[in-house]
Amino acid sequence: MSSRRIAVIEAWFTSPSQAGKHRGYSASDVALHRDAGELTVDNTMARRLRHLLAEHTKAGTCITSLGVVDSTSLHAATEEGLVCAYVSGAALSFADVGRTDPSADLSDYLPSAVADKVNSMYRAQLARDRLNRGLAQRGFKCTDPMIPLIADCDSGYGLHTSVMKAVKLLVEAGTAGLHIDDMLSGSKRFDKVDGVGGVLVPLSEHKRRLVAAQLQLDIMGSECVLINRTDAIHSTHITSTIDPADRAFILGSPIPSLPSYASLRTSAERTAWRAAAQLCSIDEATARAAEAAGDLDLLQKYNAQVGSLCAGDAKRLALRLGIKVEWDCDIARTYQGWYPYRGCIESSLDRMKRTSHLFDVVWYCAISYLASEAEFFAKELQAASPGKWMMFNTTQASRARVKDIPPAELERIPHTLGRLGYSLNIMPLAGQVIHALGSARGSKAVLQGGLAAFIEEIAGPAEDEAEGRPLVAQWHPNFGSIADSVMDIIGTGE
Ligand SMILES: C[C@](O)(C(=O)O)[C@H](CC(=O)O)C(=O)O
Ligand SMILES: [Mg+2]
């Protein structure tokens, strides 16, 4: 039966993994873009990920997961009990970004870089799975290597067609879940140097990314889990004021005598400007102006009519009603043209609530771990979208970032998150740090003690720890056995 038949696509829309999503387009829209022939996507791993998320949400438990950097560490972590793995754009961009140069996590590598990494890991999982069949026959205890891979699709690398192409590459590569972020591509920074942290795109643009991603999944018939990540909590700017949904968080200055921010030349001038600007939203500026003039009835009219207006139109409404509001967000733009934005947990929540019909999982991306914030976020979100799958991460986890958290609370994180309804806690860069540390420790021993130290300190203990499981050190003969078994089937050619 042709995969482009409307009835087939309508059945897909109402299938168990898809039924909860809202689509603003029809089956014939999808049909128009489906390839000729049968669908070729294998949904096994996506379904495993869905099953994991559903089961853990139900049980009130939270999976701890790592970003892994290659097939060897993926396999080793799987042997130790990892049930799903993350493929991090940051980890790749720092060290291993394929055909382009490493740099900061700026989404400036080829969009295929993460997909290539996923594909190499997925192929290694499949090969490992084939190998295990022979190893099990030879008495080894084998762990199922097929754990779902969640891939970083960053901000989608551009507008809607770029998002669709990136999603297609990831799905074809074997990804089981992917996330799309709401930042301006390439603008990520967490340090807030010179007042700039994350830079968001308007919510409407982010929605278009999510819809483009889902459309691509529909075109492919992929059950890949779509994860919505917002960086609003630590963002300081936004590229445009066009979306009314962002109005409450877009900031301008009510002080008319200020020079424009973009005209300032030094960081010291900019710091002083920010201290003097009394940045606030148009709604706050309007309320203050009306209250100061005793125009409470005008304020009431403003509040009744402002609902669906963007910041600029809201200001025009206030002036039209006769409220003498001074508020300028253009004066506050950076030299790149970005507007100040009040990044906070409320803005993150607001973005998630307004888009929750478009994706499978909410990613609450925190700069540090704060149980009270994780709880506030979870409760508010679940009140608006009961049962929505949620995941959590602490970006750039380091001693400094968690220094104020009591050790007992840190240890309780998986328990606390599970109780709050988060089913997945990802530590994106942990795999890279583990990789580096293991390599440093092992190399130090071998460089100092040669073969004797390698056997004594590395290979020997690895054999002991394997306890009947196949070892990385035995992959050479083990993979050889695949070639032998194929040769048995092919025969001698006589
Ligand atoms: C999750 C993340 O997108 C990644 O690429 O791993 C990064 C990780 C980090 O910088 O710690 C992010 O949180 O933006
Ligand atoms: Mg990333």
Provide a short characterization of the protein structure.
By secondary structure, this protein is of the alpha/beta class.
Which helices and strands occur, and which strands form pairs?
Blueprint: H1 6-13, H2 27-33, H3 44-59, E1 63-66, H4 71-79, E2 85-87, H5 89-95, H6 112-137, E3 149-152, H7 160-173, E4 177-181, E5 198-200, H8 203-220, E6 225-230, E7 235-238, H9 267-276, H10 282-292, H11 296-305, H12 311-321, E8 339-340, H13 345-355, E9 361-366, H14 371-384, E10 389-394, H15 399-402, H16 407-411, H17 413-420, E11 422-427, H18 430-466, H19 475-490
Parallel strand pairs: 1-11, 2-3, 3-4, 4-6, 5-7, 6-9, 9-10, 10-11
Antiparallel strand pairs: 7-8
Helix pairs in contact: 1-2, 6-7, 6-19, 7-8, 10-11, 11-12, 13-14, 14-17
**Stretches with pLDDT under 50, minimum 5 residues:** none
CATH level 1 name of the largest domain: Alpha Beta
Indicate the CATH architecture of the largest domain: Alpha-Beta Barrel
What is the H-and-E element order?
HHHEHEHHEHEEHEEHHHHEHEHEHHHEHH
Number of strands: 11
Number of domains: 3
CATH topology term of the largest domain:
TIM Barrel
Distance from first to last alpha carbon: 43 Å
**Ligands and ions found:** alpha-methylisocitric acid, magnesium ion
Strand content: 5-15%
The helix count comes to 19
Major sheet summary line:
8 strands, parallel
Protein name: methylisocitrate lyase
Family: Belongs to the isocitrate lyase/PEP mutase superfamily. Isocitrate lyase family.
Catalytic activity: (2S,3R)-3-hydroxybutane-1,2,3-tricarboxylate = pyruvate + succinate
GO molecular function: isocitrate lyase activity; metal ion binding; methylisocitrate lyase activity
